[in-house]
Amino acid sequence: MEDLYLELNSLLPQTSRELPLPDQLDEAANYIKELQVSVEKNRERKRKLVTTAALEKLNSTGSSSMSSSVDVSVPKRLPRIEIQETGPIFHISLVTSLEHKFMFHEIIRVLTEELGAGLTHAGYSIVDDAVFHIFDCKVEDCDFGATSRISENLKKLVNSVN
């Protein structure tokens, strides 16, 4: 039981560790619920991206025999970027073709070196000839100027290869 407590306590932010034990447990339960919600949102986003990639592949082959109940608009060009902002946290989804997979490193470089964002997660998956990149980063100076500058620079980078 003590090992479980220590492991759970190590996952909590430093400020939560100063609380009494019952409050720490409540804090841990809330943190776990937040993580579950985040996982579900990411699964939904992944499902939409995979559906979009499948529809793009179908459209590129010229076949129209598949009907889909998913309402997804499919742009004809890749790469494509989507930026979601939640306070100082940015969630960036990038879909590229295999020939543009170098953009993974370019996005990381722009986020960390040029924009000073702290990268908290970066990953990618390859499905057929599409590469799905996911980036999460935190911006310390989260004012309107910083958020618009990040969005503009990333979109400019992505549009430069179109």
TrEMBL record:
BHLH domain boundaries: 1-35
Top-rank taxon, per record: Eukaryota
Keyword terms of this UniProt record: Nucleus, Transcription, Transcription regulation
GO function term, MF aspect, one: DNA-binding transcription factor activity, RNA polymerase II-specific
One record GO biological process: regulation of transcription by RNA polymerase II
Subcellular location(s) of the protein: Nucleus
Primary site of residence: nucleus
UniProt-listed SUPFAM superfamilies: HLH, helix-loop-helix DNA-binding domain
This protein's GO CC annotations: RNA polymerase II transcription regulator complex
Protein name, as recorded: BHLH domain-containing protein
